[in-house]
Write a structure and sequence with these properties.
Helix content: over 70%
Structural class: mainly alpha
Shape: elongated
Number of helices: 4
Largest sheet: none
Radius of gyration: 15 Å
Order of helices and strands: HHHH
Strand content: under 5%
Length: 98
């Protein structure tokens, strides 16, 4: 992973970054279960997309360019997986089933 969390967030698209930030730093009020549920589903889909992309990239690993892409995908996947888990924990804390 890169040295600073902000560096990793820079790897994400604007929409992904906004979603991760919203889940990781919820506002002072209680989060709405519907919003969290939607965020969890979006994050799960994004994680699955990057997991598949990482599998394909690893098949072509060996060149410096592909190896950089694999590292970038691993970093993206790590931060998005953490955000997904944070969202799941928030849903569990408010007693909302997945």
């Amino acid at each position: 992973m890169t040295s600073r969390p902000a560096d990793v967030l820079d790897l994400l698209s604007r929409q992904e970054r906004a979603l991760v930030t919203a889940v990781s730093e919820p506002p002072g009020r209680d989060p709405e279960p519907e919003s969290l549920h939607c965020a969890r589903l979006r994050l799960r889909n994004i994680v699955e997309k990057y997991s598949e992309e990482l599998k394909r990239a690893r098949l072509g690993a060996g060149s410096a360019r592909v190896d950089r892409r694999v590292a970038e995908l691993k970093n993206k996947l790590e931060i998005l997986t953490r955000a997904h888990e944070a969202c799941r924990k928030q849903l569990a804390a408010i007693g909302t089933p997945e």
